[in-house]
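Project standup — Tuesday

K.O.: blocked on the structure for the chain from last sprint. Re-posting the sequence here as requested.
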Amino acid sequence: MRYRLLGNTGLRVSEVFLGAMTFGERTGRVGLDEARRIVGLYEDAGGNVIDTADMYGAGESEEVVGEVVAGRRDRFVLATKYTCTRDRTDLNAGGNHRKNLTRALEESLRRLNTDYIDLYWAHVWDPFTPVEEMMRALDDAVRAGKVLYVGISDAPAWVVARANALAEWHGWTPFAGLQVPYNLLHRDIERELLPMAEALGLTVASWRPLAHGALAGRPRRDLDDRESAVVETLAKVAAELEVTPAQAAIAWVRARSRAVCPILGASRADQLRETLGAVEVTLPKEAVDRLTAAAALDPGFPHDFIAPHPGIHGDAVDRLDVR
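H.V.: unblocked you, prediction finished:
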């Protein structure tokens, strides 16, 4: 396992994160004993980031994570999220505003059995809360020592860029990371979010790298023609390289941008053992190109309109070397 810096900070994070969404018996997925095996396997491989959220298993995921890391909490970068409602009958029990952040943070600290959270994510953009309020409230949590770094999940690129511009102007803590879905079947972030993150120096924690198992070699009947073609190409590439489809799919995500750190989830330790093998897989350029072509993305407007061409830049544009 190798390590990277989280965004524009000095925090060292492993090149793949461990997702704890399945942790908790109330979800019917991963009990405490299996969670210990999963985290132990991840730790033995050198991983140090465990990602959860207050809504996973109605808080049970955080409780399990807190119990599993007890006694060695400082060895891990604990990441959790707030935003989603804790009470559907109370409008203030959800959202990115200061009141919900304050209550949600205290409850997460209690469940995780810790006095600080390394990386605190806004779980999703809340269009009803001013960006200024969210950033100032998060900065207050950092200044209080309850949070060390902040990030945002599932938000438009313009929101993230504006939030970090405000943080820079006011001396507040900026977002260090962005959490978004990214895989061979769903490349939407390449239009705006990934270029924005790369330009601003943000770490991209990518969830669903296996597209709900569709890229792990598991038979699926709900795939359209394009998706089926991608899965078929992935299987051929994986066989040629003598790796599993899951490992090839995760390796493709990692090859697309050094900003990306895939989040690996698992219901069993043996599943994680397979996907962790992706960190040892380096896809040849030809394989990356084949997979990328099979999963072709229409960039849409304005990207297809402003792509370099002689009509805009003149006939000598092909002689311009860009960084």
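K.O.: great, moving the ticket to review. The longest strand covers residues 147-153. Residues 30 and 46 are 22 Å apart (CA to CA).
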